[in-house]
Amino acid sequence: MRIKTKIKKIVIILVAALTMCSTAAIASPVFASSNVSSYRQNDLSLDVKSALAIDSNSGQILYAQNANKILPIASMTKLITVYLTLQAIKNKQISWNTKVTPTDNIVKVANNSEYSNVPLKKGHSYTIRQLYQATLIESANGAAMCLAKAVAGSQEAFVKQMRTQVKKWGITDAKLYTVCGLPNGNVGSDAYPGVSKDAENLMSARDMAIVGQRLIDDFPAVLNTTKIAKMNFKDGNQTTQMSNFNWMLKGLSQYDANLSVDGLKTGTTDKAGACFIGTAVHQGGRIITVVMGARHQDGTDPSRFIQTKRLMRWIYKNYNAINLNAGSTLGKAQSVRVADGKQLDTNVGLKSKTTIWDPVDGKNVTASLTKKTADAPINKGQVISQYQFKSGSDKLVSLEQPNGMRVDAQALSANSKANVFVRFWRWITGVR
Fold first, then answer.
1. Among 72, 85, 156, 328, which one is least packed by beta carbons within 10 Å?
2. Phi/psi at 48 (nearest 5 deg)?
3. In this predicted structure, what is the pLDDT of residue 362?
4. pLDDT < 50: residue spans in the chain
5. Annotated catalytic sites, by residue?
6. 187 near 177, Cβ under 8 Å?
7. How high is the pLDDT of residue 19?
8. Angle 19-22-28 (CA atoms, 0-180°, nearest 5)?
């Protein structure tokens, strides 16, 4: 009876353990986005409704001010439209030379002088390349609508694709109605059905940073276009000079040679105010900044760029970039214990190239491993732990990991499983 009782207890314990493991696997930690609403906000108060600065590669948060506040994004919307266009080209649904003929409604929108546009003509056809350039440089609303028509067949179908895409990126609070960022009622017969004409696309600074991050990561060549200050749009015998609304580019009024801005997109409506998602390379790393709801008195108001400059200069002053290559080892966190391996320790290093921004406050960034043991066999290049980082006692945080940024650590060499006799001897002698 005692044996049966012991067996029963063991079974119960095993079932409970398996249940806990299963639950843990299903309920993996989901970090509340509210944790990144503010970060070092007291160090720099910007004259905007919300703002955020991140590292483009790791998502490390460098500054956040009301970063989760949902606000109108205006023409910053076009970055999602461009992403889906580039994805369609990659998937061979369309090509750069695919020609698009605008609908009567798109022609009407494209020739409305109240909106940023290139004047598309009825019956004319335009290549995807032309429309793509016009969308990013001139922020042309009609051109963006043409891209949507080419990719999805209709504006409504494209908006649904946009909604699906941002959800794939973990953005769950977005409200999207138009492909160009104009208010719903301003796109005429292409207004999203069942929605107020006053409805505008809404996202947070955090959401927009994710959009920028994904666009640059998946399609880095987009920067070759976003950095163009001026370009001609040719339509038959007519030429329209396009001028980038990102005035921080070289040759435009808010250019600063010390900031090296090469993208990304502005956005302006009465409700949105002046918005700008910018990006620049500094000390070998790339940052993405977002400012939303800056002052916009008129079309000559540079407020969004002034606030972006303040943010970028503050980052350059208060952080140093540590650029690390794949395989780099970090401090004392160089190995994990493998009790059942042929070698008792396996050296680890970074899985991929990473930039860590070290706050210039006298506290050096240190790294530690989240998991200090692993089971054999281990393959070279296998992720067996993660690095977490601190500056002094403060954790570095990122968009995806606001409770502490983590970066994958890979095995730098293989470690096969020791034979049963070696493992038994280690158990007898207490070697672990």
1. 328
2. -145, 165
3. 63
4. 1-34
5. 75, 78, 139
6. no
7. 33
8. 135
